[in-house]
Structures are given as structure tokens and as C-alpha cells.
Design goal:
With about 40 residues, the protein is an all-alpha fold. Helix content is about 80%, strand content about 0%. It is built from 1 helix and no strands.
Length: about 40
């Protein structure tokens, strides 16, 4: 059942890529607004 492990790895890699893209976009948004109330 190598395909089961393979599809889990692909799904994990895709989810990490999406999470990293969202985090990067959010961090750029916070950097663009220095007057925001973020700590």
C-alpha cells in the first residue's frame, strides 16, 4: 500500500504550502500597517 503513504505525503505537502502562503500573506499585511495594534 505504498500509494496510501504517497497520497498522504502529497496532501501534507500541499497543506503545508497553503498554510505557508497564508501565513506569509498575513505577515506581509501586518508589516504594511505599522499603526495596527498587533503586539
Amino acid at each position: 500500500m505504498w500509494y496510501f503513504t504517497w497520497i498522504l505525503g502529497v496532501l501534507l505537502a500541499c497543506s503545508m504550502a497553503i498554510i505557508n502562503a497564508l501565513w506569509l500573506e498575513r505577515s506581509f499585511d501586518l508589516d504594511a500597517k505599522p499603526d495596527s495594534k498587533a503586539h
